[in-house]
Write a structure and sequence with these properties.
single chain, mainly beta, 1 helix, 31 strands, globular
Length: 415
């Protein structure tokens, strides 16, 4: 993995809310991938020995290793994007090759967007494309709208899919994944009504009944719990993952910070687009086993990786494939100790390995790594650490069958 890795969280200033509302998933994706957010005025910006020191009047709520975009400076070189390396509550530091000075102008900064494009949009719908169309020329369609067959109080989710071509927000006629040749609209158009309604196949859930979020079976037709969810989004020029918590912030359960991992992108140097989602095609009243079940990274025993193509370029949109957790104990990430860890050491981690439908090795998915040590229920939603000049974000995670754990996000080189 090379290039900028940008990340965002729900605790940043003016972060978009992920709620029990149709369209809120689109809001989060738009602000992170397309726009950037959290514009704040600086009260001073100084350059000292190649380090930019930005000072705010109030706590800025920007985190280490996030990328900011500065604007309004009279010195043109300052109006650019920088990785945050040092922080206090009211200051942040970044590297810049300029002589010592105190900058002038009406200077502000915000979290820099990833630079993706929103090609088409509709009411609570969007089609996104990556910044790097050479690496990833495919489209991600996200339908976060209320299906006509569905009831508004039920679970909230986005239907998601990879499109090879797209000419408008409702163009679902080309090659895509997932795709059932016997039911061409299976992923997008609902059937039935009421508790018998079936809506979607590959889904990104962001609000369900509160009991489902803390370790019980659940169904979509249970009334979804109100409240904001915490989330982390991490992205490069061609791939991204969003990791929302499975419980609202008002939950008192010790594992409310546990997340799932949804994403879209390509394998490095290969023409193989992937989609990470929860795979559910059943009536809304169907009892489901826990919030982490049937998600791509829930366990190495689940065929939950959605690919458009295999390693030979043949289409495989109706066949879900496997992610192996290599050295992880119990086939879950962050649930148990694969090895004993000495006091003071960082956590142990290893790559995930992906295969296609015929068990040919594809390689490592971008950004995510498997945690090989157990995760305490007292840990926060995420923590940051560095190792061998790389930055990592450890995110609480929810596997299948109540395997509470964590997953690692590689934020790239520190310098």
């Amino acid at each position: 993995m090379s290039g900028q890795v940008k990340w965002f969280s729900s605790d940043n200033l003016n972060a978009p809310k992920l709620t029990n509302t149709w369209g809120s998933m689109i809001d989060v994706l738009d602000e992170c991938l397309i726009n950037g957010f959290g514009t704040q005025a600086l009260i001073s910006l100084q350059i000292q020995d190649g380090v930019g020191i930005a000072t705010f009047a109030n706590p800025h709520k920007i985190n280490q290793f996030q990328w900011i975009e500065i604007s309004g400076a009279d010195t043109p070189e300052l109006n650019a994007e920088f990785k945050v390396l040092g922080i206090t509550s009211n200051t942040l530091e970044f590297l810049i090759d300029l002589p010592d000075q105190t900058a002038t102008g009406s200077i502000a900064c915000k979290l820099a967007s990833v630079g993706w494009v929103k090609k088409f949009s509709g009411t609570h719908k969007a089609v996104y494309q990556a910044k790097d169309l050479v690496a990833n020329p495919y489209f991600l369609r996200v339908d976060n709208s209320l299906d006509p067959v569905y009831t508004t109080t039920y679970a909230k989710f986005a239907k998601v899919g990879i499109l090879e071509s797209c000419t408008g927000i409702d163009d679902i006629g080309g090659n895509q994944a997932p795709f059932d040749p016997t039911n061409s609209t299976k992923n997008w158009l609902g059937t039935g009504s009421g508790s018998s309604a079936i809506s979607g196949w590959a889904k990104w859930y962001h609000a369900t009944a509160i009991n489902s979020n803390v370790g019980s079976t659940w169904s979509e037709n249970s009334v979804a719990a109100n409240g904001d969810r915490d989330w982390v989004l991490v992205a490069t020029k061609d791939s991204f993952f969003i990791l929302p918590s499975v419980a609202p912030n008002t939950s008192t359960n010790s594992n409310r910070h546990c997340s799932t991992a949804y994403g879209f992108g390509v394998f490095d140097g290969q023409d193989i687009p992937f989609l990470s989602a929860q795979i559910q095609y059943a009536a809304a009243s169907t009892s489901r086993s826990y919030s982490g079940t049937n998600t791509t990274f829930c366990t190495s025993d689940f065929d939950g990786l959605i690919l458009l193509k295999d390693v030979f370029g043949a289409y495989q949109p109706d066949t879900f494939t496997r992610i192996n957790f290599t050295l992880a104990g119990g086939n879950f990430t962050g649930y148990s100790d694969s090895f004993s860890k000495k006091t003071g050491e960082n956590i142990y981690h290893c790559p995930f390995l992906c295969v296609d439908k015929s068990n040919y090795l594809i390689g490592e998915p971008p950004l995510l790594r498997c945690v090989m040590n157990s995760t305490a229920s007292t840990e926060p939603a995420y923590t940051l650490f560095t190792e061998d000049n790389r930055a990592y974000l450890k995110r609480r995670f929810f596997g299948s069958s109540l395997r509470y754990g964590s997953i690692l996000i590689d934020l790239g080189e520190v310098y």
